[in-house]
Amino acid sequence: MSKTVYLNISQITEVHHKEIQLKDVATVYSDDSAVTNKCSALRIKTIHLDRDKRYVESALDVIKKITEMDPTITVNNVGEVDFIIDYHRPKSPNWAWEWIKTIFVCIICFCGASFAIMTFNNDVSVTDVFSEIYRIIMGKESTGFTILEVSYSIGLALGIVGFFNHFAKFKINTDPTPLEVEMRLYEDNVSKTLIQNDGRKEQDIDVS
After folding, report:
1. Listed residue (67, 63, 19, 60) closest to 43, CA to CA
2. Which residues, 6+ apart, have CB-to-CB distance to 16 below 8 Å?
3. 39-77 pLDDT, tens per residue?
4. Comparing 94 with 20, which gets the higher pLDDT?
5. Strands across the sheet with 82-87, in order?
6. Which of 25, 93, 138, 190 is least buried, going by the fewest C-beta atoms within 10 A?
7. Contact at 8 Å (CB) between 14 and 88?
């Protein structure tokens, strides 16, 4: 009697152990729970190198292993055709180093954003514009610190928070932030490039 197993393989999965089972990289479903458990526990790869590395694998190889294990199983893959196993050696987190990196990135972002804002303000002469507006409306010269500068500073901060949809642990709405979108696009592009490069090398076609 034929048994159908559905696989939903993720594009990239991070693992910290060398014996990779099917459940580590895919969601497995079948009407028969025994078949589901047997397929989930199937070992699809053993990592021999003791270093961090990404491995490009094919769903066809996974299907082959399943059918070799049980020829009566029919596999229906609804996930990725090629996928990546991102192996990282298990290690305890170094919280001091993590905090140092976080603080360093925050300082770089703060200084970079400050420099960009100041450069933009000088480029479009915001100070001169505010002074001229203040002189026209109030009939006297600006001291350089007026309601215009205060409103601009507050509005700039609120605009940044509104655009990035994020402040500390709080989000304005459930939409992903622009940074989250860009990071996901970057991860997708990296995964696609690794898969495409792996296929090109097998055909002796490589741009590197």
Report:
1. 19
2. 87, 88, 89, 90
3. 999 999 999 988 999 999 999 999 999 999 999 999 999
4. 20
5. 12-15, 82-87, 53-58
6. 93
7. yes
